[in-house]
Description:
Order of helices and strands: HHEEHEEHEEH
InterPro entries: NTF2-like_dom_sf, SnoaL-like
Protein name: Nuclear transport factor 2 family protein
Pfam families: SnoaL_4
Distance between the termini: 35 Å
Shape: globular
Radius of gyration: 18 Å
Organism: Paraburkholderia pallida
Number of helices: 5
Mean pLDDT: 91
CATH topology: Nuclear Transport Factor 2, Chain: A
Structural class: alpha+beta
Number of domains: 1
Low-confidence stretches: none
Amino acid sequence: MSTALQRLIDKDQIRDVMLRYARGVDRRDWELVRCAFFEDCADDHADFKGRRDDFIEWVRERHDSPGLLKSTHFLGNCLVEFASDTIAVVETYFVARLEIAPEASGHRTMLDAQHLESPGISRVEVFGRYVDRFEKRNDEWRVAQRRTVFDAMQSHLVEAGGSALNSAWTLGRRDPQDPVFLMLADAGLREAGER
């Protein structure tokens, strides 16, 4: 296989890792998040600095809170630069949109201190970049080191009823009944009810 073709395959595999990470966080599929990182990965993510399993526990605690109502991570530009056949530096732009109720104090303290005392729901948009060192070990690309870079953030209170979507539409969920998991089960790619 040519080097150019192998680079295309490697880039595609790296981008898939990033997409699985975003799905894992938004759908609260923590095993999918875990598979994006090597066990010894060092992660610098806002108020968290540490290893993979501790990061997953930290983010899980916040996302499993009943007060974190919605989470959507949109990934944009993804530039993959190879240092060797087994090391790449990857910069991926993201927009994370969260809806946070007052009881999600961990997220609200970190992301929306200006509305900390408000009884309303905050909508927060975070703009940033994942700056990752990817490594290929045992023929598998994963994040070996991550630094989450924050470029901008905005938040506002959602007016009563301002967050409601049309109930006749297919709505996203943060559990095994989300449409993507149902479609995967229907296609035979997962068991029904499995994330």
